Amino acid sequence: MEKVFRDSVHGDVFIHDEVFMEIINSSEMQRLRRILQLGGAQFAYAGASHTRFTHCIGVYHIISQFLKAPDFAKISAKDKKIVLLAGLMHDIGHGPFSHTFEKISKRSHEEYSADIIRNPKGNIAKILKKHKVDPEDIIAILEGKYPNKILNSLVSSQLDADRIDYLMRDSYYCGVNYSSLDTEFLIRNVRIIDDKIVFPKKTIHAIESYLLGRYHMYKQVYEHKLSTGFDVTLISWFERIVDLNEKGYQFADQRINNYFSYIFNGQNIPIDLYLILDDFTMFDIMKNCQKENDHILSDLSDRLVNRNFLKLKEADEFKIREIKNLLKEEGKDPKYYFIEPKFKKPSIYKDGLTDGKDQTIYIVDKNNVVKSLTKFSLLANTVKYIEDEKTIKKYFFPKEVM
After folding, report:
1. How far apart are CA 206 and CA 201, in angstroms?
2. Is residue 369 part of a domain?
3. Distance between CA 71 and CA 154 in Å, rounded?
4. Considering only CA atoms, which of 217, 207, 125 is closest in space to residue 168?
5. How many angstroms from the chain centroid is the CA of residue 356?
6. What's the domain count of the chain?
7. Pick from 85, 148, 191, 343: most CB atoms within 10 A?
8. What tens-digit pLDDT sequence spans the chain (402 residues)?
9. Residues 76, 128: one domain?
10. Are residues 179 and 235 in the same domain?
């Protein structure tokens, strides 16, 4: 069989095996069509309406291109199939609004991905077993624990299929040109040495371009003040729901209790309920919450629905006291309306292990000696200077009290 997806970023993406089409057509994967890739960035960039689904198709495609490189010929057909499946399903556990829901649910999308893939009552495990694929092999790759380390690196490393696709896709749909990646050149020259994915010295400039593009995407897109404003307002909205629940408030929309009672009690959302949640469902709940009797919940819901998020501005100690007093006068508790953000400083590059996964980009020299990128690249060594960049104290609060 052969199926073709016409992709805006990669062109034609070919599917050659029935198992992939069955996974793609499952309700678990189709749900990703209803979850935008960039969450709050849709409000900053008009074209940023691409989904987790198209990103997963893109990751599958990039892995398939890596597997065509000569050094990957030694990998077994079984391993090639499972790494393609892992790439295809690597984001299957994402909740609504991208990574922001992880802060609400207090659980990572990777953990939900593992639960969805191994769920005996779901479609994924049944499809995999029908095609003689062990779901635990897929999960092992996603967790970086599969015996063949090459497969782990293809899906999760500093230079992996996931990062390559989301940088290309996000920059394309946001209309920015920070991530102009020479992907074909990198894939054409990739090698495998000592169970590591390595690149020859001649690819260093292409790798540096990729790393710098990623840094600029974080600064200009992923941490855009409108995107983070949506995230902060969404978290305040949910904190208000949690606090109202503790006070015994009766929500008009029963879905709040049905979906979120597990979070209220410090439990994981059951998979059958979690799979109902997507961006559309959450926005519908927010629209209903606009009519709630609690004025704070109603106001925060209205801000989320109508793109009137809390705004990011500088404020000194005097200004902070003034803003908090104004908020209290208007009946707006600063707990929900005055937020100090916790920005994670993006780095260009770091060697070593992160969460047990090797994040080192390896370069092979003309003598076939493999070393870290930091041994060759001046850019990779500038990370400490960028991380030492001073930040100005800024806070999120309503624009009407500025």
Report:
1. 10
2. no
3. 13
4. 217
5. 19
6. 2
7. 85
8. 899 999 999 999 999 999 999 999 999 999 999 999 999 999 999 999 999 999 999 999 999 999 999 999 999 999 999 999 999 999 999 999 988 999 999 999 999 999 999 999 999 999 999 999 999 999 999 999 999 999 999 999 889 999 999 999 999 999 998 767 889 999 999 999 999 999 999 999 999 999 989 989 998 999 999 999 999 999 999 999 999 999 999 999 999 999 999 999 999 999 999 999 999 999 999 999 999 999 999 999 999 999 999 999 988 888 899 999 999 999 999 999 999 987 776 667 888 777 777 889 999 999 999 999 989 988 887 764 555 555 568 999 999 887
9. yes
10. no
Residue 364 domain flag: no
Q: Which residue has the tokens 């059958």?
A: 272
pTM of the model: 0.94
Q: How far is 146 from 135, CA to CA, in rounded Å?
A: 12
Report the half-sphere exposure of 261 (CA within 13 A, side-chain side). Answer: 11
Asked whether the CA dihedral 174, 175, 177, 180 is positive or negative, the reply is positive
